[in-house]
Protein backbone atom coordinates (compact mmCIF):
# COMPACT_ATOMS: atom_id res chain seq x y z
CA UNK A 1 0.00 0.00 0.00
CA UNK A 2 1.37 3.36 -0.95
CA UNK A 3 1.22 6.22 1.56
CA UNK A 4 2.35 8.91 -0.87
CA UNK A 5 1.12 9.35 -4.42
CA UNK A 6 2.20 11.84 -7.03
CA UNK A 7 -0.57 12.28 -9.59
CA UNK A 8 0.01 13.74 -13.03
CA UNK A 9 2.35 16.36 -11.59
CA UNK A 10 3.35 19.26 -13.84
CA UNK A 11 5.74 22.10 -13.10
CA UNK A 12 6.16 24.55 -15.97
CA UNK A 13 8.35 27.63 -15.68
CA UNK A 14 7.38 30.59 -17.82
CA UNK A 15 10.14 32.15 -19.91
CA UNK A 16 9.71 35.89 -20.30
CA UNK A 17 11.25 38.08 -22.92
CA UNK A 18 10.80 40.81 -25.47
CA UNK A 19 10.01 44.44 -24.90
CA UNK A 20 6.99 43.88 -22.62
CA UNK A 21 8.56 41.02 -20.70
CA UNK A 22 5.67 38.78 -21.69
CA UNK A 23 5.64 35.01 -21.30
CA UNK A 24 7.08 33.82 -24.60
CA UNK A 25 7.33 30.11 -23.83
CA UNK A 26 7.58 27.57 -21.03
CA UNK A 27 10.17 25.19 -19.63
CA UNK A 28 8.35 21.91 -19.11
CA UNK A 29 10.53 20.95 -16.15
CA UNK A 30 8.08 18.28 -15.00
CA UNK A 31 5.38 17.34 -17.46
CA UNK A 32 2.97 14.76 -16.12
CA UNK A 33 4.54 12.19 -13.77
CA UNK A 34 2.97 9.65 -11.45
CA UNK A 35 4.64 7.94 -8.49
CA UNK A 36 3.50 5.61 -5.72
CA UNK A 37 5.63 5.33 -2.59
CA UNK A 38 5.30 2.37 -0.22
CA UNK A 39 6.59 1.90 3.32
CA UNK A 40 10.21 0.79 3.74
CA UNK A 41 11.11 0.87 0.06
CA UNK A 42 13.69 2.78 -1.93
CA UNK A 43 12.78 4.49 -5.17
CA UNK A 44 15.41 5.64 -7.62
CA UNK A 45 14.68 8.77 -9.62
CA UNK A 46 17.29 8.81 -12.35
CA UNK A 47 17.97 10.93 -15.39
CA UNK A 48 20.52 13.30 -16.83
CA UNK A 49 21.07 16.79 -15.48
CA UNK A 50 18.14 19.10 -16.27
CA UNK A 51 15.60 16.29 -16.68
CA UNK A 52 13.45 17.57 -13.79
CA UNK A 53 14.43 15.34 -10.87
CA UNK A 54 15.05 18.06 -8.29
CA UNK A 55 11.89 19.86 -9.36
CA UNK A 56 9.85 16.75 -8.50
CA UNK A 57 11.56 16.53 -5.09
CA UNK A 58 10.95 20.17 -4.32
CA UNK A 59 7.37 20.03 -5.59
CA UNK A 60 6.58 17.14 -3.24
CA UNK A 61 8.04 19.18 -0.37
CA UNK A 62 5.89 22.18 -1.30
CA UNK A 63 8.97 24.21 -2.23
CA UNK A 64 8.01 24.67 -5.87
CA UNK A 65 4.93 26.16 -7.50
CA UNK A 66 3.00 23.32 -9.10
CA UNK A 67 1.31 23.99 -12.44
CA UNK A 68 -1.13 21.08 -12.16
CA UNK A 69 -1.54 17.64 -10.70
CA UNK A 70 -1.30 16.79 -7.03
CA UNK A 71 0.41 14.97 -4.22
CA UNK A 72 -1.68 12.74 -2.01
CA UNK A 73 -0.39 11.89 1.45
CA UNK A 74 -2.06 9.19 3.55
CA UNK A 75 -5.15 9.38 1.38
CA UNK A 76 -5.51 13.15 1.48
CA UNK A 77 -4.61 15.71 -1.12
CA UNK A 78 -1.88 18.05 0.12
CA UNK A 79 -2.28 21.74 -0.31
CA UNK A 80 1.21 22.24 -1.72
CA UNK A 81 0.91 26.00 -1.57
CA UNK A 82 0.48 25.93 2.16
CA UNK A 83 2.06 23.00 3.93
CA UNK A 84 2.29 24.34 7.49
CA UNK A 85 5.63 24.09 9.27
CA UNK A 86 4.29 21.96 12.08
CA UNK A 87 2.04 19.58 10.17
CA UNK A 88 2.40 15.82 10.29
CA UNK A 89 3.58 15.89 6.68
CA UNK A 90 6.48 18.20 7.62
CA UNK A 91 7.49 15.74 10.33
CA UNK A 92 7.08 12.66 8.14
CA UNK A 93 8.80 13.79 4.95
CA UNK A 94 12.33 15.18 4.99
CA UNK A 95 14.84 16.11 2.31
CA UNK A 96 18.63 15.80 2.00
CA UNK A 97 20.52 17.81 -0.57
CA UNK A 98 23.68 17.24 -2.57
CA UNK A 99 25.44 20.30 -1.32
CA UNK A 100 25.31 20.04 2.44
CA UNK A 101 27.68 23.02 2.70
CA UNK A 102 25.00 25.39 1.48
CA UNK A 103 22.01 23.57 2.97
CA UNK A 104 23.44 23.50 6.52
CA UNK A 105 23.48 26.93 8.13
CA UNK A 106 27.18 27.86 8.66
CA UNK A 107 26.37 30.15 11.57
CA UNK A 108 24.81 27.40 13.63
CA UNK A 109 26.44 24.67 15.65
CA UNK A 110 25.67 21.09 14.70
CA UNK A 111 23.62 20.74 17.89
CA UNK A 112 21.23 23.44 16.71
CA UNK A 113 21.21 22.26 13.09
CA UNK A 114 20.09 18.79 14.12
CA UNK A 115 17.78 19.94 16.92
CA UNK A 116 15.97 22.51 14.76
CA UNK A 117 13.43 20.16 13.14
CA UNK A 118 12.83 18.43 16.51
CA UNK A 119 11.95 21.80 18.11
CA UNK A 120 9.05 22.19 15.70
CA UNK A 121 7.39 19.07 17.05
CA UNK A 122 8.56 18.39 20.59
CA UNK A 123 9.17 20.42 23.72
CA UNK A 124 12.33 18.85 25.08
CA UNK A 125 14.44 20.13 27.96
CA UNK A 126 18.02 21.12 27.12
CA UNK A 127 19.29 17.85 28.58
CA UNK A 128 16.74 15.74 26.70
CA UNK A 129 17.54 17.54 23.48
CA UNK A 130 21.28 16.92 23.85
CA UNK A 131 20.64 13.27 24.57
CA UNK A 132 18.51 12.99 21.44
CA UNK A 133 21.11 14.78 19.26
CA UNK A 134 23.82 12.56 20.70
CA UNK A 135 21.82 9.46 19.72
CA UNK A 136 21.38 10.79 16.20
CA UNK A 137 25.09 11.60 15.87
CA UNK A 138 25.86 8.11 17.06
CA UNK A 139 23.60 6.59 14.39
CA UNK A 140 25.51 8.40 11.64
CA UNK A 141 28.91 7.65 13.21
CA UNK A 142 29.90 11.07 14.58
CA UNK A 143 31.20 11.71 18.10
CA UNK A 144 29.86 13.92 20.89
CA UNK A 145 32.39 16.70 20.18
CA UNK A 146 30.74 17.26 16.81
CA UNK A 147 27.76 18.82 18.54
CA UNK A 148 29.65 21.99 19.33
CA UNK A 149 31.33 22.46 15.97
CA UNK A 150 30.16 24.28 12.85
CA UNK A 151 29.41 22.55 9.55
CA UNK A 152 32.45 24.04 7.77
CA UNK A 153 34.72 22.24 10.24
CA UNK A 154 33.76 18.89 8.71
CA UNK A 155 34.70 17.02 5.54
CA UNK A 156 32.15 16.55 2.75
CA UNK A 157 31.31 13.02 3.86
CA UNK A 158 30.89 14.10 7.48
CA UNK A 159 28.65 16.98 6.45
CA UNK A 160 26.45 14.55 4.59
CA UNK A 161 26.21 12.55 7.82
CA UNK A 162 25.05 15.68 9.63
CA UNK A 163 22.45 16.20 6.88
CA UNK A 164 21.21 12.65 7.39
CA UNK A 165 21.12 13.04 11.21
CA UNK A 166 19.02 16.17 10.78
CA UNK A 167 16.71 14.46 8.30
CA UNK A 168 16.01 11.50 10.60
CA UNK A 169 15.62 13.67 13.73
CA UNK A 170 11.82 13.81 13.47
CA UNK A 171 11.55 10.07 12.90
CA UNK A 172 10.24 10.53 9.35
CA UNK A 173 8.58 8.02 7.05
CA UNK A 174 10.16 9.26 3.86
CA UNK A 175 13.42 10.95 2.99
CA UNK A 176 13.89 12.54 -0.41
CA UNK A 177 17.64 12.43 -1.00
CA UNK A 178 18.66 14.67 -3.90
CA UNK A 179 22.05 13.51 -5.22
CA UNK A 180 23.24 12.94 -1.63
CA UNK A 181 26.58 11.44 -2.64
CA UNK A 182 27.28 13.09 -5.99
CA UNK A 183 29.78 15.56 -4.53
CA UNK A 184 31.73 12.88 -2.65
CA UNK A 185 34.71 10.69 -3.55
CA UNK A 186 33.83 7.17 -4.64
CA UNK A 187 35.04 5.52 -1.42
CA UNK A 188 33.09 7.97 0.73
CA UNK A 189 30.02 7.49 -1.50
CA UNK A 190 29.94 3.82 -0.60
CA UNK A 191 30.15 4.58 3.14
CA UNK A 192 27.32 7.08 3.00
CA UNK A 193 25.12 4.73 0.96
CA UNK A 194 25.81 1.92 3.40
CA UNK A 195 24.75 3.77 6.49
CA UNK A 196 21.73 5.17 4.69
CA UNK A 197 20.72 1.58 4.05
CA UNK A 198 21.36 0.61 7.69
CA UNK A 199 19.29 3.51 8.95
CA UNK A 200 16.52 2.47 6.62
CA UNK A 201 16.47 -1.02 8.11
CA UNK A 202 16.44 0.32 11.66
CA UNK A 203 13.76 2.93 11.12
CA UNK A 204 11.63 1.36 8.39
CA UNK A 205 12.09 4.43 6.20
CA UNK A 206 11.30 4.91 2.55
CA UNK A 207 13.68 6.81 0.29
CA UNK A 208 13.29 8.64 -2.95
CA UNK A 209 16.87 8.57 -4.10
CA UNK A 210 17.64 11.11 -6.83
CA UNK A 211 20.71 10.57 -8.99
CA UNK A 212 22.00 11.36 -12.47
CA UNK A 213 24.04 8.15 -12.27
CA UNK A 214 22.30 4.81 -12.67
CA UNK A 215 25.40 3.08 -11.29
CA UNK A 216 25.11 4.81 -7.92
CA UNK A 217 21.52 3.79 -7.23
CA UNK A 218 21.78 0.29 -8.65
CA UNK A 219 22.29 -1.45 -5.32
CA UNK A 220 19.92 0.78 -3.37
CA UNK A 221 16.63 0.69 -5.15
CA UNK A 222 13.61 -1.57 -5.14
CA UNK A 223 11.92 0.43 -7.85
CA UNK A 224 13.23 2.94 -10.37
CA UNK A 225 11.79 5.83 -12.31
CA UNK A 226 13.84 6.82 -15.35
CA UNK A 227 13.32 10.42 -16.32
CA UNK A 228 13.98 12.36 -19.51
CA UNK A 229 12.83 15.87 -20.39
CA UNK A 230 10.33 16.15 -17.57
CA UNK A 231 8.68 12.78 -18.25
CA UNK A 232 9.18 9.20 -17.14
CA UNK A 233 10.43 7.02 -19.98
CA UNK A 234 10.41 3.84 -17.93
CA UNK A 235 9.40 2.62 -14.50
CA UNK A 236 10.00 -0.79 -12.98
CA UNK A 237 11.70 -2.91 -10.36
CA UNK A 238 15.48 -2.94 -10.24
CA UNK A 239 15.42 -6.18 -12.24
CA UNK A 240 13.01 -4.79 -14.84
CA UNK A 241 15.31 -1.83 -15.41
CA UNK A 242 18.73 -3.46 -15.28
CA UNK A 243 18.02 -6.87 -16.77
CA UNK A 244 15.26 -5.98 -19.17
CA UNK A 245 15.43 -2.29 -20.14
CA UNK A 246 12.98 -1.41 -22.89
CA UNK A 247 13.30 2.30 -23.53
CA UNK A 248 16.22 3.40 -25.63
CA UNK A 249 17.08 6.11 -23.11
CA UNK A 250 17.29 3.58 -20.27
CA UNK A 251 19.54 1.41 -22.42
CA UNK A 252 21.78 4.37 -23.03
CA UNK A 253 22.01 5.16 -19.33
CA UNK A 254 22.93 1.57 -18.53
CA UNK A 255 25.56 1.51 -21.27
CA UNK A 256 27.00 4.71 -19.77
CA UNK A 257 27.73 3.13 -16.37
CA UNK A 258 31.54 3.19 -16.14
CA UNK A 259 33.15 -0.09 -17.16
CA UNK A 260 34.84 -2.18 -14.53
CA UNK A 261 37.10 -4.65 -16.32
CA UNK A 262 38.65 -4.66 -19.82
CA UNK A 263 36.36 -7.40 -21.12
CA UNK A 264 33.26 -5.51 -20.05
CA UNK A 265 34.73 -2.40 -21.60
CA UNK A 266 34.88 -3.95 -25.04
CA UNK A 267 31.42 -5.46 -24.71
CA UNK A 268 29.96 -2.16 -23.56
CA UNK A 269 31.61 -0.29 -26.38
CA UNK A 270 29.92 -2.60 -28.87
CA UNK A 271 26.67 -2.25 -26.96
CA UNK A 272 26.87 1.50 -27.13
CA UNK A 273 27.41 1.49 -30.89
CA UNK A 274 24.50 -0.88 -31.37
CA UNK A 275 22.27 1.25 -29.17
CA UNK A 276 23.07 4.39 -31.13
CA UNK A 277 22.39 2.63 -34.43
CA UNK A 278 19.12 1.19 -33.13
CA UNK A 279 18.18 4.59 -31.78
CA UNK A 280 18.62 6.31 -35.13
CA UNK A 281 16.38 3.74 -36.79
CA UNK A 282 13.70 3.66 -34.09
CA UNK A 283 13.52 7.17 -32.72
CA UNK A 284 9.85 7.57 -33.68
CA UNK A 285 8.90 4.68 -31.42
CA UNK A 286 10.03 6.61 -28.37
CA UNK A 287 9.26 10.26 -29.08
CA UNK A 288 6.26 11.81 -30.80
CA UNK A 289 6.40 14.39 -33.60
CA UNK A 290 7.02 17.16 -31.04
CA UNK A 291 9.91 15.17 -29.59
CA UNK A 292 7.89 14.53 -26.45
CA UNK A 293 8.19 11.25 -24.59
CA UNK A 294 5.09 9.06 -25.09
CA UNK A 295 2.81 8.12 -22.19
CA UNK A 296 3.84 5.10 -20.16
CA UNK A 297 2.23 1.80 -21.12
CA UNK A 298 2.10 -1.26 -18.92
CA UNK A 299 4.11 -4.26 -20.07
CA UNK A 300 4.01 -6.28 -16.82
CA UNK A 301 2.62 -5.86 -13.29
CA UNK A 302 5.65 -3.79 -12.32
CA UNK A 303 7.16 -2.59 -15.59
CA UNK A 304 6.03 0.45 -17.60
CA UNK A 305 7.60 1.87 -20.76
CA UNK A 306 6.90 5.05 -22.73
CA UNK A 307 6.46 3.79 -26.29
CA UNK A 308 4.23 4.38 -29.23
CA UNK A 309 3.52 0.82 -30.25
CA UNK A 310 3.15 -2.45 -28.43
CA UNK A 311 6.55 -3.57 -27.26
CA UNK A 312 7.68 -6.38 -29.48
N1 LIG B 1 13.29 28.46 -11.29
C1 LIG B 1 13.42 28.03 -12.56
N2 LIG B 1 13.08 28.80 -13.62
C2 LIG B 1 13.20 28.34 -14.89
N3 LIG B 1 13.65 27.11 -15.21
C3 LIG B 1 14.00 26.30 -14.20
C4 LIG B 1 13.92 26.70 -12.82
N4 LIG B 1 14.34 25.66 -12.04
C5 LIG B 1 14.68 24.67 -12.90
N5 LIG B 1 14.47 25.04 -14.18
C6 LIG B 1 14.69 24.21 -15.37
O1 LIG B 1 13.89 23.06 -15.24
C7 LIG B 1 14.54 21.93 -15.75
C8 LIG B 1 14.65 20.84 -14.71
O2 LIG B 1 15.51 21.26 -13.67
P1 LIG B 1 15.91 20.33 -12.43
O3 LIG B 1 14.66 19.81 -11.81
O4 LIG B 1 16.82 21.09 -11.55
O5 LIG B 1 16.68 19.12 -13.15
P2 LIG B 1 17.63 17.99 -12.52
O6 LIG B 1 17.46 18.01 -11.03
O7 LIG B 1 17.16 16.72 -13.16
O8 LIG B 1 19.02 18.33 -12.95
C9 LIG B 1 15.89 22.42 -16.27
O9 LIG B 1 15.78 22.67 -17.64
C10 LIG B 1 16.09 23.69 -15.50
O10 LIG B 1 16.92 24.58 -16.22
MG1 LIG C 1 18.97 18.25 -9.58
TrEMBL record:
Under the heading CDD domains, the entry gives: ABC_NikE_OppD_transporters
UniProt-listed InterPro entries? AAA+_ATPase, ABC_transp_ATP-bind, ABC_transporter-like_ATP-bd, ABC_transporter-like_CS, Oligopep_ABC_C, P-loop_NTPase
Print the keywords alphabetically.
Answer: ATP-binding, Nucleotide-binding, Transport
User: Which SMART domains is this protein grouped with?
Assistant: AAA (SM00382)
Q: Name one GO molecular function term.
A: ATP binding
- The ABC transporter domain is annotated at 4-254
Does Oxidoreductase count among this protein's keywords?
Answer: no
The alphabetized list of GO BP terms reads:
peptide transport; transmembrane transport
Q: Which PROSITE patterns match?
A: ABC_TRANSPORTER_1, ABC_TRANSPORTER_2
Q: Which Gene3D superfamilies match?
A: P-loop containing nucleotide triphosphate hydrolases
Q: Which domain of life is it from?
A: Bacteria
Q: Which family does it belong to?
A: Belongs to the ABC transporter superfamily.
PANTHER family with a match to the protein in the record: D,D-DIPEPTIDE TRANSPORT ATP-BINDING PROTEIN DDPF-RELATED, TRANSPORT ATP-BINDING PROTEIN
**Descriptive protein name:** Iron(III) ABC transporter, ATP-binding protein
